[in-house]
Amino acid sequence: MSDQIQRFMFDHTNVRGEIVTLAAAYHEVLDRHAYPPAVNELLGELLAAVALLTDTVKLDGTLSIEVRGRGVLSLLMAESNPGGELRAIARIAEDAALPSEHASFRELVGEGQIVITLDPREGHRYQGIVALDQETLGGCLEAYFSQSEQLPTRLWLAADEKRAGGLLLQRLPEESQNQDVDAWDRSVQLADTIKTEELLGLEQREVLHRLYHEETVRVFEPKALRFGCTCSRERMSYALHSLGKEELRDILHEQGAIDTQCHFCHTKYHYTAADIETLLDDPDAPPPTIH
Ligand SMILES: [Zn+2]
C-alpha cells in the first residue's frame, strides 16, 4: 500500500472528501525517535491530518499543525510542504511520567491549543487557533474548520504505529449544485461505520467501496506523499545567528565548535570557530527560507 491521498466527490451533491494512507512516511518519522506507543499513534493521526488539511484547502505552500499542550506532551507538530513531503515531531514535557500505552488524547495533551499555520508560496501567511477542548484530535480540527473556514467538516483519524490513515468529509457552500438534500447526513453516517482496521488495512478504493457502494463516487487521481525535511545549512545558520554574538562565542569557548542537529530528521550540522566568525561577520545573514 503506497503513501497517498485521494480526493473524491459524490455526484450531484455538494459533498466532497479526501482519504489518506501513510506507511513509509510514518515509519520514517517514528524511526528517528523513540517515543512511547501512545505518542506514536497520536503522531500518526497528526500526519494524516496535516495531509488531509493541506489537500482540502488546496494549499501550494507549507501547512503546519502544532498541538501545544500542558500535559505529558508539550508539543506535537506535523508539517507538509509543496513537494508532498511530510515531517513531524513530538516533545514530551520534562519530568513527565511516560504515558501508558492506552493514554487518551486528552491525557496526553491536557489543556492548551492547536495552532494551524498556512504559509502559501504566494500571498499572506494565515494562522488559526482552536482550543484543545474536544476528546479527540479529529474533534479539535473539526472545530477549526467550523471557526475558520465555516464549512461543515468531519474527520476520522487512526494510527497503529505501522500505518496512519484518515478520512475527511466536507460540505461545500454550493447548495444550488446539490440535488440530494440527505447527501451530507448520509455520507457522515456511513463514514461513522468505518472501523480502525479498515481505515488502516484496506486500499483506499476498497474503503470507499465498503462505505459508499450505493452512492456515485467520483474519485480523482491519487497524489503521492512521502517523508521529507526542509532543514538546510542556510536555515540552521540563520537560527544560530539569531542566538547572538556573545552566546555563540560562549559555546565556542566551551566546546571549540558548534554541533547542531535537526529535530525532525536528525541531520547534523557542524560549525567550526571559523565558520561561526564568518557567520557573525555577515551582516546579511540568510533569511529563513520557508520552502
Ligand atoms: Zn531536517
UniProtKB/TrEMBL annotation:
PANTHER family: 33 KDA CHAPERONIN. Disulfide bonds join 229-231, 262-265. NCBIfam families: PRK00114.1. Redox regulated molecular chaperone. Protects both thermally unfolding and oxidatively damaged proteins from irreversible aggregation. Plays an important role in the bacterial defense system toward oxidative stress. It is found in: Cytoplasm. One of its GO terms (biological process) is protein refolding. InterPro entries: Heat_shock_Hsp33, Heat_shock_Hsp33_C, Heat_shock_Hsp33_N, Hsp33_helix_hairpin_bin_dom_sf. Transmembrane segments: none annotated. Belongs to the HSP33 family. Keywords: Chaperone, Cytoplasm, Disulfide bond, Redox-active center, Zinc. One of its GO terms (cellular component) is cytoplasm. Gene3D superfamilies: helix hairpin bin (1.10.287.480), Hsp33 domain (3.55.30.10), HSP33 redox switch-like (3.90.1280.10). Pfam families: HSP33. Under oxidizing conditions two disulfide bonds are formed involving the reactive cysteines. Under reducing conditions zinc is bound to the reactive cysteines and the protein is inactive. GO terms for molecular function: protein folding chaperone; unfolded protein binding. This is 33 kDa chaperonin. The gene is hslO. Its main location: cytoplasm.
